[in-house]
Amino acid sequence: MENAILAFEDFTEGRVFPLGPRRMTREEIVAFAGEFDPQPMHTDEEAGRASLLGGLAASGWHTNAAAMRMMFDSYVGRSTSQGSPGIDELRWKRPVLAGDTLSGRSTVLTSRPLKSRPGLGVVRFLNEIENQRGELVCRSEFSIIFAMRDADTGAARCG
User: Fold this and answer.
1) Backbone torsions φ then ψ of 104, nearest 5 degrees
2) pTM of the entire structure?
3) Please, what's the largest Cα pairwise distance for the chain?
4) How many angstroms separate the CA atoms of 114 and 119, rounded?
5) Which of 33, 78, 134, 156 could form a disulfide with 42 if both were Cys (CB 3.0 to 4.6 A apart)?
């Protein structure tokens, strides 16, 4: 069952998908920041240490991108995902520093069929990402749309 394609029906309330682990290296933190968020605390170790973050820290957007990759590896990549209508809440709780290892869980909060699109359903998730010390670094709530099993929606499987 582990390699089975996950459809809407598989995302039952309370189901938990493990995420990670993923190590955040200095090189990827600087590369991501250089491209997308070149604030000094994300690109320079000395500036990071002098900031309230206490060291070279990943951009929050990088942390969320890493969480997305962990979600893809855990369940999205073997599902009927059709994309997301958006993020309802995103909180960066602690800095993610170079060398931190992230892991966590994605928990199904609710799921419901879409009345406007037969054969599709929307699933609401809670992501909780922690560092290697078990400290919460990122929390988010969001939805993903999935095709139903054997539904004729013309929807292609993700991945």
Assistant:
1) 170, -150
2) 0.91
3) 56
4) 8
5) 33
Tens-digit pLDDT profile for residues 135-157? 999 999 999 999 999 876 554 55
Task: Give the 3-state secondary structure of residue 89.
Answer: strand
Q: Which domains does the chain have, with CATH numbers?
A: 8-147 (3.10.129.10)
Q: Residues near 94 by Cβ (< 8 Å), separated by ≥ 6?
A: 131, 135, 136, 137
pLDDT in tens, 5-25: 999 999 999 999 999 999 999
Task: Name residue, tokens 């590896």.
Answer: 73
Give the H/E segment covering residue 124: strand 120-130
Local structure of 73: helix, strand or coil = helix
By the 8 A CB rule, do 74 and 68 touch?
Answer: no
